[in-house]
Write a structure and sequence with these properties.
Layout lengths: L21 E6 L7 H13 L9 E5 L15 E5 L2 H14 L3 E6 L6 H11 L5 E9 L23 H4 L5 E4 L6 E4 L1 H6 L9 H14 L3 E11 L8 H5 L5 H10 L4 H9 L1 H12 L7 E6 L9 H14 L6 E6 L2 H7 L1 H4 L4 E3 L7 E6 L6 H10 E8 L3 H4 L7 H12 L2 E4 L2 H10 L7 E4 L12 H4 L6 E5 L8 H11 L4 E5 L9 E4 L6 H9 L3 E4 L8 H8 L3 E5 L2 H8 L6 E5 L2 H13 L21 H17 L3 H13 L3
Parallel strand pairs: 1-2, 1-4, 2-3, 5-8, 9-10, 9-12, 10-11, 12-13, 13-14, 14-15, 16-17, 16-19, 17-18, 19-20, 20-21
Antiparallel strand pairs: 4-7, 5-7, 6-8
Helix pairs in contact: 2-6, 11-24
């Protein structure tokens, strides 16, 4: 840039290739410098930062007892004083007369002249953006300092430059005192005297309040980065965002009580949270991204949901994932019941409230309330939900009405929806229309017999019982089916897993939930046949386990069982029935050793392709997480944020 390019004071087009005319005011009063260091710093600003070519008015607030003499190589007018507010007023008065903007630098910063081009473009992108400031980087880590919310240093770390590049080019904020500010000439002309303030930060803070009350907003350029000194003499956050002395803050609030709202306004900014999450998605080199597994839906019982979660952890434990730090968030009682910490020592285990920022959150089961969705959104950039089935909503009585609005919300606003079967996907989509921007993928649970059977248990001799699986829900149809079979086979012994006891002869009841997995496997492996009478399932792990032990399994006719058979090659037989007649006939033929019609297996598997197992399930889910993260859309995240905020969640 050169002085010839700045002859028109009104040349303020946002797309200008050069910045307009401005004066420079630097405040070194709080710096521990001797005369030589002060001289060298000013020389660096003018020569190496490029300001000597564009600035012909330089004002310097000096440390006590130091002076600054002009040098031949310093062009223009040099003014220096230890009176910060007084020198600020003089600089403002002269810039007003000469119709110039004013760049204010506080502390030992060396902003390059190129930074000013970004600030100039930012402040002139809108006629009522009055003050522009850059972002600030730590020279030792290259990390970007976050904004000082509520006047405190944020608990989260620095933002990576890679994350900063994902943010919008500019951000409009409340008035915010920082160590580098460009005031456009209209704001300079409207500032007025500093009044009761004696320090430059105090006078500048007053000016920012006045500018805001006149309608001029502060704008931050996320493309302008000023690097702090490698070894700053002051605490870094204070160097970047100076804090007023308590007396000055009291005076300012007496004059403008509503200034207290500025900190609250910055605190509420959606981009504050977005910046934290982008930093988690793009951490510094050699740091792993963090993946949150929300296992809070796991109960301290054995059921299908806990089986899916444990299978996922089994798979993750067999996968090398150096780019991810996996955190399992669970309830303490459930974690103890399932022995998560002992069983999976390579993963991080957390309980209680979710804390920190994550690149992605994966919920292995669908959410039941919007509050859960909001929590995951607050802590993870990408939110993915694993849809097991829609049974709870379809059967009505199993859940409250919040489920419908929750599932409609994730169908519109989630980053990704995984389904454990195409059958579940085909149930979910017409009930809760999924927006095209939501990534979807069917990822089958393990269909590998080795994951679902224990050779020692499988070697036990068969016993004389027929095993029925289910629970007390109506769609499981367990008790009516048991009544039919007990009447049809009066001499047959039945074992029933999951139903409350009822007065039927030759029937033994096994309560579900608290029975160990080993005992369930023993019941399956030694059964003459297994009956699974449910009308509605999303996958049916008990069926897969029974097939893994080579059992003949009678299932109610459903497209799900065709899908399971087509993607598996288990040693057992799957036999369908669609009414009581075909059920009784099918079980009778199995018990008599007669031929039966069974579903064809492995028809969807290409030659040489093995069925999915827990290892491949974990790999596919991680790949899906990566895909969703790669397709991150900031506009969609912002829409989700605003929607949840509007809903007061």
């Amino acid at each position: 840039m050169n002085s010839e390019s700045m002859t028109d004071p009104d040349s303020t087009a946002a797309d200008s290739l050069t910045a307009g005319p401005y004066d420079l005011l630097i405040d070194m009063s709080a710096c521990a410098l001797d005369q030589a260091k002060l001289d060298r710093h000013v020389a660096k600003l003018l020569k190496y930062c490029g300001f000597a070519d564009v600035v012909d008015r330089l004002s310097v607030v000096l440390p006590p007892s130091l002076k600054l003499q002009p040098r031949p190589e310093w062009p223009g007018v040099l003014r220096s004083s230890a009176d910060g507010a007084g020198l600020f007023d003089l600089a403002v008065e002269e810039a007003t007369v000469r119709r110039r903007a004013l760049l204010v630098v506080i502390g030992p910063l060396l902003p390059s002249n190129e930074v000013l081009l970004h600030l100039w473009r930012a402040v002139h992108s809108d006629p009522l953006l009055g003050v522009a400031q850059p972002r600030f980087a730590d020279a030792r880590t290259d990390g970007i300092f976050p904004f000082p919310y509520s006047g405190e240093v944020p608990s989260h770390g620095l933002t990576s430059k890679r994350a900063l590049a994902e943010l919008p080019e500019i951000a409009i904020t409340a008035e915010l005192l920082s160590s580098c500010l460009l005031l456009r000439r209209e704001v300079v002309a409207a500032l007025g005297p500093s009044g009761p303030f004696r320090s430059l930060p105090g006078a500048l803070a007053l000016g920012l309040c006045r500018a805001r009350r006149k309608g001029y907003r502060n704008v931050v350029s996320n493309r302008a980065v000023v690097v702090l000194p490698a070894d700053p003499s002051e605490e870094a956050q204070r160097l970047v965002y100076p804090k007023l002395e308590s007396a000055d803050m009291t005076t300012l609030l007496d004059m403008y009580p509503d200034h207290a709202r500025a900190g609250a306004e910055i605190e509420r900014r959606a981009s504050r949270r977005l910046e934290q999450l982008l930093a988690a998605a793009h951490p510094p080199a050699l740091q792993s991204r963090r993946l949150l597994l929300d296992f809070r839906g796991m109960s301290a019982i054995h059921n299908g949901t806990s089986q899916v979660m444990l299978g996922l952890l089994d798979g993750l434990s067999s996968v090398e994932h150096p780019s991810w730090e996996v955190v399992v968030q669970s309830q303490s009682e459930a974690a103890r019941f399932h022995g998560l910490a002992e069983r999976y020592p390579g993963l991080v285990h957390a309980h209680g409230d979710i804390a920190g920022a994550y690149a992605a959150a994966l919920m292995p089961n669908q959410p039941w309330a919007l509050e859960t969705v909001a929590q995951l959104h607050r802590h993870a950039l990408v939110n993915i939900f694993n849809i097991l089935d829609t049974i709870a909503w379809d059967v009505l009585y199993a859940v409250d009405l919040r489920v419908e609005e929750t599932w409609r919300f994730i169908a519109a606003h989630a980053d990704g929806l995984a389904y454990i079967s195409s059958f579940s996907r085909q149930r979910f989509q017409p009930r809760f229309p999924v927006k095209p921007c939501v990534q979807e993928r069917v990822i089958h649970l393990s269909l590998d017999g080795n994951d679902h059977s224990d050779p020692a248990v499988g070697a036990q001799a068969p016993l004389d019982h027929v095993l029925l699986f289910g629970n007390d829900y109506d769609h499981k149809d367990l008790v009516p089916t048991l009544q039919v079979l007990s009447d049809a086979f009066p001499l047959q012994k039945f074992m029933v897993l999951g139903a409350a006891s009822c007065a039927l002869p030759r029937v033994e009841y096994v309560p579900s939930g608290q029975v160990s997995g080993d005992e369930v496997h023993r019941l399956i492996a030694t059964a003459q046949a297994v009956v699974f009478p449910s009308h509605y399932e999303g996958f049916g792990l008990p069926v897969v386990e029974s097939l893994a032990y080579g059992r003949s399994v009678l299932v109610r006719k459903s497209a799900l069982w065709d899908e399971i058979a087509a993607h598996s090659c288990l040693p057992g037989r799957m036999i369908e029935f669609d009414d009581t007649v075909s059920l009784v006939e099918g079980l009778g033929r199995v018990l008599a050793g007669l031929p039966v019609s069974e579903l064809s297996c492995a028809t969807a598997l290409a030659d040489g392709v093995r069925p999915p197992n827990w290892h491949s399930y974990a790999l596919d889910l991680l790949d899906f997480v990566e895909e969703c993260l790669h397709r991150t859309d900031i506009a969609r995240w912002t829409e989700r944020e605003h929607t949840l905020t509007w809903m007061k969640l």
